[in-house]
Amino acid sequence: MMHGQEFVDWYHRKFVNSYPKSVWPTVYNDHRALVHVIEKFDVKTILEIGTWQGWTALLMWLHPNVEALTTVDIHKDMNIPYDHAIHHLQDKSFYGEYCKFTPVKQVFQDSMTLTEDIGHFDMVFVEGNHDYEHCKHDTELALRIADKVVAWHDVWNIDTVAQVVGYVPDCYLVAGTLVAYKPMKDKPRQEIMFGDEKIYVGIDNQIPIVDKT
Amino acid sequence: MAPFVSSSQRAYFHIHMPKLAKKWEAHTPKGKKLPKHVGKK
Known about the structure:
The complex is a heterodimer.
Chain A: H1 4-16, H2 28-40, E1 45-49, H3 55-62, E2 68-73, E3 105-108, E4 121-126, H4 132-145, E5 146-152, H5 159-167, E6 172-173, E7 180-183, E8 190-194, E9 197-201, E10 210-212
Parallel strand pairs in A: 1-2, 1-4, 2-3, 4-5
Antiparallel strand pairs in A: 5-7, 6-7, 8-9, 9-10
Helix pairs in contact in A: 1-2, 4-5
Chain B: H1 7-16, H2 18-26
Helix pairs in contact in B: 1-2
């Protein structure tokens, strides 16, 4: 069974080498970092926020450790204003194109309307709309429903994402990539300041999730 | 013509050889649960 770099090499050789020219791939090192996170935390279930073409969903789902993957994105037919999304600039025909022939579960929904009802996952990968409000909402949700690890993409090349991830303590940036992750083992109660807004994450559900100060 | 033997094979065909994938789909029982990967023999 392939793991680590061997798995990423196999995936790139098989699937990514003929990448359509007009799109912007998540680069090899970022894929390597995600696979590292999946293996380090023994991730079996994943929620991906932000599907776009489905390349990353396909990568993560193909990994031998992963048993189930749910991916969420809006659909072009939903007519939702989408100002800061990278794929707004790209070919709009891509909506999970590359993972739709796998058992990956695709949910077409604005991530702003996602709640904890979606369930718990070992890992949540935050790569939805990159504007501040979406990224903040997705991060807050991820910190509540991820049991093992939360990962983000575009953490330093996009200001709004950098700002949100910058508020989350105990994050690790994977060197040479746009990927950061936060271990969620034991989910200790934690107070996080998003600018002047305080949120709590962790196992104590009695504490209000959002407390505007 | 053969049925798909794994999900990764099905994904590969749909991405790289969509016409052939369509034909292979016709030979794969609907709802058949395929393994993710098939090991080397």
